[in-house]
Write a structure and sequence with these properties.
Elements (H helix, E strand, L loop, with lengths): L3 E5 L9 H16 L4 H15 L18 E8 L4 E8 L4 H8 L6 E3 H10 L10 H9 L1 H6 L17 H7 L18 E6 L5 E7 L20 E4 L2 E7 L1 H6 L2 H10 L4 H10 L7 E6 L4 E5 L5 E3 L1
Helix pairs in contact: 1-2, 2-3, 9-10
The protein binds glycine.
Glycine (GLY) binds next to strand 8.
């Protein structure tokens, strides 16, 4: 079977950044050419995207609402049943390398301080500075939270089309006042799906999270069946605002359609249709016969 690997740079990435996705696809493919399986390939590909600096993951992670914290999530899964994820991981430039090592433990998901201590034990803890782009975007959006109305009740749901700033203000849980912070808006995730020469499927995904967000917020990316899924029928990676993706368990929904024999493109379209039209969402997927990049907004992606 011909090995295939697909990468994306996030639903908010620009198509002009597809060169970064292509470099990642080449790296992953090279891993499979060298005898690596699909899991090693997607980890290699996502590692390149984390190192790129232009995408909201790893070195390019967006700044939190306090203007200091860069909290990342990452996950891997393959059709052999290997599954590992980390959430709310700080000071680790390559979270996907930590996620894949979770597959060597009895667990599937490590979060916060435990994930950090695990990363330290692996020698993968290395504090790093935000990119100039992350800082610029962070400053650019400062006015949004300042101008957000005060809110005393209500909850976010699928029908809301505001950006959640009023709720962030109401429930602010970073140290210090929201007024001292500057906000950021970002909803990027990077991801890769692959099929290796033996027909095994794998997915890897990494993100600097979705902003604006409260401290401790976790999106779809490290949650099985929400941001990612892989099994004998294929592999799926999602990108977009995690709260919408998780509410509809988008990756699992698409994967279950594949199991029923529905074609990849239709399975993705049917799944994405569940999300309100205003929500930016994208999906990459691979099966034994097909591969797809589907996004409501053109995004950086590549296939090798
Ligand atoms: N899709 C990335 C996130 O919502 O965190």
């Amino acid at each position: 079977m011909k090995p295939v690997l697909v990468t994306h740079g996030g639903t908010s990435s620009d198509v002009s950044q597809s060169d970064g996705c292509l470099a990642a696809a080449y790296a992953g493919h090279e891993s499979m050419d060298g005898g690596g399986d699909s899991l090693a390939a997607v980890v290699s590909a996502v590692g390149v995207l984390e190192a790129d600096g232009r995408f909201n993951a790893g070195l390019g992670a967006s700044l939190g609402m306090d203007g200091r914290t860069m909290s990342c999530d990452a996950a891997v899964m393959d059709s052999a049943g290997r599954l590992g994820a980390v959430a709310n991981l700080v000071e680790v430039p390559y979270p996907v390398k930590v996620a894949v090592r979770v597959t060597d433990t009895p667990h599937h998901l490590l979060v916060g301080i435990g994930a950090l201590e695990f990363a330290k034990r692996l020698g993968l803890h290395r504090p790093y500075e935000p990119t100039a782009t992350a800082v610029a975007e962070f400053r650019e959006h400062h006015a949004a939270i300042q101008n957000a109305p005060e809110r005393t009740s209500g909850s976010a749901d699928d029908s809301q089309d505001d950006d959640g700033l009023a709720a962030i203000k109401q429930f602010w849980n970073f140290p210090g006042s929201w007024n001292d912070a500057i906000d950021q808006w970002a909803q990027n995730t990077v991801g890769a799906v692959a099929r290796d020469a033996s027909g095994r499927f794998a997915v890897a995904i990494s993100t600097g999270g979705c902003m604006p967000a409260l401290l401790g917020r976790v999106g779809d990316s490290p949650l099985i069946g929400c941001g990612f899924y892989a099994g004998p029928a294929g592999a799926i990676a999602c990108t977009g605002i995690g709260e919408h993706i998780m509410r509809h368990m988008l990756a699992a929904r698409i994967y279950m359609a594949l199991e029923l024999g529905i074609g990849l493109r239709r399975a993705i379209d049917d799944g994405m249709r569940r999300l309100p039209e205003h929500v930016e969402v994208g999906v990459i997927g691979i099966t034994a016969e097909e591969s797809e990049v589907v996004s409501r907004k053109p995004m950086a992606s590549a296939q090798k």
